[in-house]
Amino acid sequence: MYKLSKSISRLRIKCKNETHGCAATFPLSEEYCHSTSCLYEPVPCPHQGCGAQVLRRDLEAHVQRCEHWRQLCPMGCGTVLSHQTQAQHNCYRQLRQEYEAQRQTHRAIAAALQRKMRKMQSTMAHMKRQIGLICESLEVMDNQEEEAENAGESSSSSSGSSSSSSSS
Ligand SMILES: [Zn+2]
Ligand SMILES: [Zn+2]
Ligand SMILES: [Zn+2]
């Protein structure tokens, strides 16, 4: 039994990445050890969001041109750089652009607030007019009641007709 296991461990096997181009053969016992260093082993790209599996020997080249490559600006401006933005990145211009963008959003907020305020003002003016009309009609009603109290039943009908003609 011992002999068998020993002979199995001595058995030379081909690398499982033979199809990718690895020609290495090694004892079964070294399979794991080889796979951690095999240049033809597919390994995931370390950049977040990439998800690409590339052969270990191609990893360095892939990482350098991976579109998911991200790095904070080495000058410390706080911008996250990608391959596309890295070449033309300029801290001063970047900060200025951010400042301008912020100013524009502030302007937009101020304009929206102003619009809201104008709307509220017009609503308030409208309400004021409505209240004025209500007060007027209440006064008219008061007057009518007073007139009705002061005058007899026959004259109250005439006062009603006169008020309707004045309102129209
Ligand atoms: Zn291999
Ligand atoms: Zn990648
Ligand atoms: Zn920068």
Properties at a glance:
mainly alpha; Herpes Virus-1; two-stranded antiparallel ribbon; disordered C terminus; binds zinc ion
Describe this entry's structure for a reader.
This protein has 168 residues and is mainly alpha-helical. The protein has a domain of 68 residues: Herpes Virus-1. The chain contains 6 helices and 6 strands. The strands form 3 sheets. A two-stranded antiparallel ribbon has the order 1-2. Helix 5 packs antiparallel against helix 6. It is elongated. It starts with a helix and ends with a helix. Bound molecules: zinc ion (3 copies). One zinc ion binds next to helix 5. Keywords: Coiled coil, Metal-binding, Zinc, Zinc-finger. One of its GO terms (molecular function) is zinc ion binding. This is Ring finger protein 151.
CATH superfamily of the domain at 2-69: Zinc/RING finger domain, C3HC4 (zinc finger)
Number of helices: 6
Class from secondary-structure proportions: mainly alpha
Number of strands: 6
| Cα-to-Cα separation, first versus last residue | 119 Å
Radius of gyration from CA coordinates:
44 Å
Reading off the top of the CATH hierarchy, the class of the domain at 2-69 is best stated as Alpha Beta
Segments where pLDDT lies below 50 for 5+ residues? 156-168
Strand content: 5-15%
Largest sheet: 2 strands, antiparallel
